[in-house]
């Protein structure tokens, strides 16, 4: 992929040095040579460059780590610079011929996403898959939810997905235009089971996730002619991550305080209530979701789908 061509997606040439351009060209050749020398493709995401937003910690970190172990080059995009850099350092300790970088990113700002894509291209030459994972949650009833919290949740969970797809699709269109006919790129939104059915006293989150599936289906129709697949994954609850387990702002605490679980007096009561609704009696893990990501990347016959990974808690008909 020629850097001059990709720079068109950002409105023209950028002040990249010749050394940066040479590095990208040489890196692609060297990466291919090392792959062949090692006996060819070994991981399901070998030589792919994947951006994961909100990957400094929690669910995003787990997805990014699992994809790194499958041979992908990973771009950790997150606002938390200190934690993000530490995560990338750990990733690079376990990486083989691939590697990871951190790019400080605010997914609610177009310019920040443009910088993310440009830095990815400068380092890796292309974007094969963009995983829109960053998300927030503020639980509350109609009586308790403030307009400010509603707007905050919507901007991150709904608007930011649009911003990310808008920016990265420009580059992906150029990549597929100049690549072979069997080359596809992917935009994958990490949605939620709350995007498939309503969630009591959690309408800000559920509404944004419902809307996200509408965006996925609409983006898929628009981008299919460019061999860009757009899909959502709808995980069940990841109980071990900070979204649920944070002792101050985690969902266990929020749901307990919001009275979302009738009769619950402790966090353990809340957790037991949710596990009782899952036929497989387990929470969703990053490993489970990564298998879904790899499936969506490997196939070329599906787009616009919302793939549930919920242990049977949500079953499609």
What characteristics describe this protein?
317 residues; alpha/beta; Rossmann fold; 2 domains; 11 helices
Q: How would you characterize the overall build of this protein?
A:
There is one protein chain. By secondary structure, the chain is an alpha/beta fold. The chain folds into two domains: 3-237 and 284-309, NAD(P)-binding Rossmann-like Domain (Rossmann fold); 238-277, no CATH class. Helices cover 48% and strands 12% of the residues. It has eleven helices and seven strands. The protein has a seven-stranded parallel β-sheet, sandwiched between helices. Helix 7 (203-223) links the parallel strand 5 (185-190) and strand 6 (228-235). Helix 9 (251-258) packs across helix 10 (267-275). The N and C termini lie far apart (42 Å).
